[in-house]
């Protein structure tokens, strides 16, 4: 499995799209067969300034923001200072910290944060070496033995170190807005018995750590479990984010499913808080967001619509959420009968599918519910409080991750209770059981036969959800009074799409980030424009398919399907390994490279949802398979192939560096020691012909999907830790060095790996090549490694693989001693040929790469490049179908198109 003249780093990064090597070759003739010279990235100056913009345009409300910016090798010290100005020249406070280093110790990625009260501008300018302006009200963090107190300048938040309440109080201007914010779960032991009651468990704190303490941004991490009566389950990590000048707390909630899904079930999962209610019942307000800017606006005791009219001014004030005049000034026919107007203390908004929500209310427990309204997609935001203050609360991806729910209870009493349900208790218990009984597939031989018919690699006890996770973003606002409807609608939009600052594609490309395998979108020739149009077609198709096929739900949102069923006009959602894609052949990378070169918001959000999903749901975070991901299937955890190729950090690192997201950083750090998973599980156990017992000093590890996953984790840890990376750096360089000494390098297919030293044993000159080896991030990781470090022989070993995969069998045999057999995915591998063409300055290879891209397998000019409209009764819902599209081919076409355009775009012709 799985000599170009030296050019400057700037020239290479800018053109790998312009392919300067070919210009240096007289007449564009192929270069002589001389050894490749490893490209050492030259030190070049950092740009004086970087223009930043909001991903979706200037937001309507400020909540603070964090983002990442890359810098050229050798240009900036890791302690470099930065300054930020708005478009009008106004200085903006900014907090800066390093999140990645080049191997020489210089700054590779910086992270930045601005306050919630920063001036909102269309664009900003980031400069290095300047003096930073101070925040008007810096975040302060005070640590005591019992609790940590955070002050944003607007609100003060008490974070507990023990007990069940993560936050004991949120106050604003001396007024307590919320208290006792904790996690809640409902545990049920029988899933099909409607009489079975759910047992409530609540959060119990195990540890609290201040990860960042201002002056603009503070972060507190809380770890714990849900407990009751000796039962502890659902370990969680919660991060609380605070920004200078903020009236809100942002929460990132992660839980790990530590049950096998067959004997106990989640019947509800949420975050709950108390809200003191101080105002008169007619001055208490409830707000729930619906579709778009839609808003349910009600008072606990309404004085509109009555038989007797209190007065137009009074009615208008209540609708606006303003304090009402003294009832003595109202029409006395109302004032004297106020106690006879019902007080509606309880509200519930339930979103049980992506296509519908309902709202109901009641006066108090023990009395009937009254339907209020319904709609399609609720924004996931609500408010309860009054004219002296209240709590706004929201959950991102609310309808996309159904079944979700918002509950308000006791708003007519002294304290209302708010629950944001990430799993609605009204939806029934979460069913994570396996979907069939095994059908007699007890032996490896029988399981391989099952793979032949349904493409599912089944194995008893392997289809378990034990150890998968999910992360949810929530926000809580401590508001001084009931806001106007327009303000609440803006907050709801913020919940649904949090603002994000980004650097432009031109800067991302010129910095040398991510191996130089992308260049900004270029439609300067008809040939280029045709490929760009096709890339746009494919992304739009998947974006539309998610909507038309309803690829939503708590565990599903963010993933796409693998292969269509041309007869039923559906995707094969129920056919083994053809169902959920689970990162097969790197759609994650296709999407992220598509964003990096275009800067398109819709692509970013699609890729973001996929990263959240594939890094959490498709990977194990507890148990013996922690660090491994699951191959594609009907359930995200169903297939018995648990492998590095799915869990690879290559799929997470782009999002991490663009956003400095701590949870994404956790996911990648979990993988640093994942070489130990090869002691627990042999990926080739079903097809080995010789006895094999895992030996920590001689582990059989594939040089393709296995090594690339390990290398991605080690490289990312080295980048993030710099000189402190230690063992990760050692193992990465040791594997590179010992792969290089293998007579056939990567063509060898696998090696015996020592978990202590990180070295592969010396190997014979053998040939074992798979079409999958390089298709799960290896292309991208090798390109980065070759640009970063000089390991003699490693580049030659990789270029040999790149040159020969799509070469003739005779060429393969002449160089390696045997041919590679009958291989597929030639279009996807055309980018390997293109990479070798640039590194070797070989115009013939460049021409061959374009021929492989346009005229082998995959999508070609002969593909339809259009959809067919299908409607009932042929299909359940109207859809635009392209039955010729599948995700394997799409991901590889996308990656090959993007990388070939960057590497050898000048050889494409007009």
From TrEMBL:
Q: Tell me which residues make up the PcRGLX/YetA-like N-terminal RIFT barrel domain.
A: 49-128
Occurrences of domain PcRGLX/YetA-like central beta-sandwich (ranges): 139-492
- Domain (PcRGLX/YetA-like C-terminal alpha/alpha toroid) spans 498-908
Looking up InterPro entries in the UniProt record yields: PcRGLX/YetA-like (IPR045793), PcRGLX/YetA_2nd (IPR048330), PcRGLX/YetA_3rd (IPR048331), PcRGLX_1st (IPR048329), TAT_signal (IPR006311)
PANTHER family attached to this UniProt entry: CONCANAVALIN A-LIKE LECTIN/GLUCANASE, TAT PATHWAY SIGNAL SEQUENCE DOMAIN PROTEIN
The protein here is known as Tat pathway signal sequence domain protein
């Amino acid at each position: 499995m799985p000599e170009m003249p030296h050019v400057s780093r700037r020239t290479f990064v800018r053109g790998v799209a312009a392919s300067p090597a070919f210009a240096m070759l007289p007449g564009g003739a192929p270069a002589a067969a001389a050894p490749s010279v490893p490209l050492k990235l030259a030190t070049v100056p950092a740009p004086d300034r970087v223009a930043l913009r909001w991903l979706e345009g200037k937001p309507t409300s400020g909540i603070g923001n964090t983002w990442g910016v890359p810098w050229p090798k050798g240009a900036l010290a890791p302690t470099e200072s930065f300054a930020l100005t708005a478009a009008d020249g106004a200085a903006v406070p900014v907090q800066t910290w390093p999140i990645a280093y080049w191997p020489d110790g210089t700054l590779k990625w910086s992270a930045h944060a601005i306050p919630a009260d920063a001036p909102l501008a269309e664009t900003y300018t980031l400069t290095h070496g300047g003096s930073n302006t101070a925040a008007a009200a810096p975040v302060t963090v005070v640590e005591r033995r019992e609790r940590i107190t955070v002050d944003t300048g607007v609100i003060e938040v008490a974070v507990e170190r023990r007990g069940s309440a993560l936050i004991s109080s949120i106050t604003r201007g001396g007024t307590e807005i919320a208290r006792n914010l904790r996690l809640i779960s409902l545990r049920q032991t029988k899933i099909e018995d409607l009489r079975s009651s759910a047992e409530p468990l609540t959060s119990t704190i195990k540890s609290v750590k201040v990860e960042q303490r201002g002056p603009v941004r503070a972060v507190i991490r809380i770890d714990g479990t849900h407990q009751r009566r000796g039962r502890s389950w659902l370990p969680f990590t919660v991060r609380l984010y605070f920004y200078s000048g903020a009236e809100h707390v942002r929460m990132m909630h992660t839980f790990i499913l530590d049950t096998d899904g067959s004997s106990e079930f989640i019947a509800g999962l949420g975050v709950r808080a108390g809200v003191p209610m101080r105002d008169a019942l007619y001055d208490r307000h409830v707000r729930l967001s619906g579709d778009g800017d839609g808003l349910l606006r009600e008072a606990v005791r309404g004085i509109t619509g009555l038989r007797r009219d209190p007065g137009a001014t009074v009615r208008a004030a209540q609708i606006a959420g303003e304090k009402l005049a003294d009832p003595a000034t109202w029409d006395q026919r109302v004032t004297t009968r106020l106690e006879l107007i019902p007080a509606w203390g309880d509200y519930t908004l339930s979103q049980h599918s992506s296509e519908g929500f309902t709202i109901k209310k009641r006066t108090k427990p023990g009395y009937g519910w009254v339907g209020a309204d319904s709609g399609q997609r609720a924004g996931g935001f609500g408010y309860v409080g009054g004219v002296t203050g209240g709590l706004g609360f929201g959950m991102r991806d609310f309808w996309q991750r159904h079944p979700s729910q918002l509950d308000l209870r006791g708003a007519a009493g002294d304290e209302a209770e708010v629950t944001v349900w990430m799993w609605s208790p009204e939806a029934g218990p979460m069913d994570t059981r396996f979907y069939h009984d095994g059908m007699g597939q007890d032996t490896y031989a029988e399981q391989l036969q099952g793979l032949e018919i349904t493409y599912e690699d089944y194995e008893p006890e392997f289809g378990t959800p034990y150890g998968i996770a999910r992360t949810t973003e929530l926000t809580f606002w401590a508001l001084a009074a009931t806001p106007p409807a327009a303000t609440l609608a803006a907050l709801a939009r913020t919940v649904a799409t949090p603002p994000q600052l980004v650097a432009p594609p031109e800067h991302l490309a010129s910095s040398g980030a991510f191996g130089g395998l992308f260049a900004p979108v270029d439609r300067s020739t008809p040939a280029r424009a045709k490929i760009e149009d096709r890339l746009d077609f494919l992304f739009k198709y998947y974006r539309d398919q998610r909507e038309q096929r309803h690829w939503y739900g708590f565990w599903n949102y963010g993933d796409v399907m693998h292969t269509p069923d041309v007869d039923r006009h559906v995707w094969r959602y129920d056919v083994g390994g053809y169902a959920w894609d689970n990162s097969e052949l790197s759609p994650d990378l296709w999407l992220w490279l598509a964003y990096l070169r275009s800067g398109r918001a819709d692509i970013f959000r699609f890729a973001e949802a996929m990263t959240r999903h594939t890094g959490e749901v498709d990977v194990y975070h507890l148990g013996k398979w922690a660090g491994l991901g699951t191959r594609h299937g009907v359930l995200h955890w169903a297939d018995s192939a648990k492998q590095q190729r799915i869990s690879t950090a290559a799929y997470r690192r782009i999002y991490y560096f663009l956003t400095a997201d701590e949870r994404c950083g956790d996911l990648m750090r979990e993988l640093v020691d994942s070489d130990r998973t090869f002691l627990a599980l042999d990926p080739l156990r079903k097809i080995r012909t010789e006895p094999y017992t895992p030996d920590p000093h001689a582990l059989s590890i594939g040089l393709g999907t296995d090594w690339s996953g390990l290398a991605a984790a080690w490289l990312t840890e080295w980048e993030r830790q710099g000189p402190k990376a230690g063992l990760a750096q050692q193992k990465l360089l040791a594997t590179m060095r010992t792969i290089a000494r293998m007579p056939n390098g990567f063509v060898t297919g696998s090696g015996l790996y020592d978990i202590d030293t990180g070295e592969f044993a010396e190997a014979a000159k053998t040939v074992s090549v798979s079409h999958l080896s390089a298709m799960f991030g290896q292309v991208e990781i090798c390109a980065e490694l070759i640009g970063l470090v000089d390991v003699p022989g490693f580049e030659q070993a990789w270029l040999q693989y790149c040159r020969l995969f799509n070469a003739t069998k005779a060429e393969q045999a002449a160089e390696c001693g045997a041919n590679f057999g009958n291989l597929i995915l030639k279009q996807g591998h055309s980018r390997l040929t293109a990479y070798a063409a640039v590194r070797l300055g070989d115009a013939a290879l460049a021409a061959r790469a374009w021929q492989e891209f346009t005229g082998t397998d995959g999508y070609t000019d002969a593909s339809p490049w259009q959809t067919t409209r299908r409607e009932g009764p042929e299909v359940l819902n109207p859809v635009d179908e392209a039955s010729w599209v599948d995700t394997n081919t799409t991901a590889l076409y996308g990656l090959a198109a993007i990388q070939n355009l960057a590497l050898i775009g000048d050889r494409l012709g007009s």
